Amino acid sequence: MNRRLTICLLAAALTGCATPALQMETERTYQVEWIGERPLIDNSHLTITLGDDGRAYGNAGCNHWFAGYTLNGNMLSFSAAGSTRKMCAPALMEQEARFLDSLGEVQRWDFSTIEQLRLWPAEGKPLRLWPQSN
């Protein structure tokens, strides 16, 4: 590898200027793939949309959920989530409870090296999400 290319690659790696920074978008729906250390139950559908008005909402697998949120740079927090009160299979209800509880623990967000959105609690594994196709 020639010296100029080596220096260019090293500079890009150190400054992060080789790729544009990803930004979490409001008014975009993200599909949940994992809650902490566990993937979603097959065929369940959990989503998060952050509205421009400071309200978050989506599908929790069985019920629709809603909460306030605060987004400041890479810091993110949700107020206590509310939801509709439909009953589903016990496994879906347990997953929904874990999801809604985990929202209250979120403190920050980032993107992984594969451009997956991650919502991080103070301790433990993140919620992992993909942008939903429109």
Which key features would you list for this structure?
Lipocalin; 10 strands; disordered N terminus; 134 residues; alpha+beta; 22% helix; globular; 10-stranded antiparallel sheet
Structural features, described:
With 134 residues, the protein is an alpha+beta fold. The protein contains two helices and ten strands. Mean pLDDT is 87; it is low at 1-19.
The amount of beta strand, in percent, is: 35-45%
Report the helical percentage.
Answer: 10-25%
Structural class: alpha+beta
Number of strands: 10
Order of helices and strands: HEEEEEEEHEEE
Helical region count?
2
Q: What would CATH call the architecture?
A: Beta Barrel
Large-scale geometry: globular
Stretches where pLDDT falls below 50 for ≥5 residues?
A: 1-19
Radius of gyration over C-alpha positions, nearest whole angstrom: 18 Å
- The total number of structural domains is 1
The CATH class turns out to be: Mainly Beta
Q: What is the typical, i.e. mean, pLDDT? A: 87
CATH topology: Lipocalin
N-C termini distance: 42 Å
- Main beta sheet strand tally, sense and closure: 10 strands, antiparallel
Oligomer: single chain
Brief sketch in words of this structure:
By secondary structure, the chain is an alpha+beta fold.
